[in-house]
Amino acid sequence: MTRSSTTQLRAVIFDVDGTLAETERDGHRRAFNDAFREFALPYQWSVSEYGRLLRVTGGRRRLALYLGEHGYPDAEAQHLARDLHELKTQLFLRWVRGAMIQARPGVRGLMKDLQNENIAIAVATTGSRAWVNPLLDRLFGGVTFDCIVTGDDVTELKPAPEVYLKALSGLGLSARDAVAVEDSPPGLAAAVGAGLPCLVVTSAYTRGQHFPGAAAVVPGYLPIDHLHAPSPAYLRQGVTVPALVRLQAARATRPA
Ligand code: XBP
Ligand code: MG
Predict the structure, then answer these.
(1) Backbone Cα Rg of the chain
(2) What confidence tens digit (pLDDT) does each residue in 74-87 have?
(3) What are the CA-CA distances from residue 56 to residues 198, 230, 236 (Å)?
(4) Which of 241, 194, 239 is nearest to 4 (CA)?
(5) Does residue 21 contact residue 104 with C-beta atoms inside 8 Å?
(6) Catalytic residue at 74?
(7) What's the N-to-C CA distance of the chain in angstroms?
(8) Could you write out the DSSP letters of every residue in 22-73?
(9) Which residue, 5, 10, 168, 220, has fewest beta-carbon neighbours within 10 Å?
(10) pLDDT of 1 strictly over 70
């Protein structure tokens, strides 16, 4: 990977769910509910219930917690969660392949600009590799991902920093060289825990939440009218390569 001449920024590491695409409410949640139905279980996760459960990262852990809350002994909850999650993943893949899920507006153009600047693009997600790779292929065909780390590749899920540390290691870079882009508090905590400056692009489920330690918080990748101008002002033109360079530089100059 040749170093771009104009920036110290050498890589951007993106989260997936909520950050690259709005996958949770109409994708994952529906796949979980379809799995409950196929198992003839009396559960269906409403939009608000699922929003509560999203505080638990990892679909299989989310299921195990929910089953535990509904009276299953731990060993049985873990066993059933594993079986349900395997089916849910196959069902979610149908959503991915069915073109129901679109990239968030502006993120594909940002990736093309990063590639033109020879800035590496990586992914650090809690999601399962079985659907992550097909989703990235379908939404971002033509984009080269220099490193993809999924929930299957780590022992500790977000908010633990392991997924970001593995992405940095896979890129052969240090946290000083990169910026993370996230949508949720657990994801932000994982990025900050790995020493990365983190831009939060809020998603449908995380808008209005608190993001302690974020380098900046914006509602999307596109330019924002001055009425809702984020700070710092350089993000008003949207999440652009120059904006990410400035965000990373600002963090690099802040006293440790
Ligand atoms: C969000 C998650 C994932 C998804 C469901 O991941 O916590 O668990 O909700 O995917 P991200 P799985 O870090 O990309 O925001 O069922 O495959 O876990
Ligand atoms: Mg996310």
Answers:
(1) 18
(2) 999 999 999 999 99
(3) 20, 28, 32
(4) 241
(5) yes
(6) no
(7) 28
(8) --IIIIIHHHHHHHHHHTT-S----HHHHHHHTTS-SHHHHHHHHHHHTT--
(9) 5
(10) no
Measured in degrees and rounded to the nearest 5, phi and psi for residue 161 equal: -80, 0
Q: What is the pLDDT of residue 152?
A: 98
Has residue 6 got a pLDDT over 80?
no
Say what angle helices 162-171 and 185-193 make with each other, to 10 degrees: 50
- Residue 30: which residues within 8 A CB-CB, separation 6 or more? 95
Q: Which atom of ligand 1 is nearest to the CA of 56?
A: 7
Residues contacting 243, CB < 8 A, separation 6+: 234, 235, 237
Q: Respond yes or no on whether the N-terminal peptide bond of residue 212 is cis (omega within 30° of 0).
A: no
For strand 120-124 and strand 147-149, is the pairing parallel, antiparallel, or unpaired?
Answer: parallel
As residues whose CB is below 5 A from the ion ligand 2, the structure lists: 15, 17-18, 183-184, 187
85/29 Cα distance (integer angstroms):
12
Q: Ligand 1, residues 89, 126, 201: which to mutate, most atoms within 8 A of Cβ?
A: 126
Question: What does the angle CA 100 – CA 21 – CA 15 come to, to the nearest 5 degrees?
Answer: 145
- Report residue 220: phi and psi, to 5°: -175, -175
pLDDT above 60: residue 44: yes
* Token pair recorded at residue 134: 């097909």
Residue 75 near residue 208, CB atoms below 8 Å: no
Q: What is the pLDDT of residue 2?
A: 46
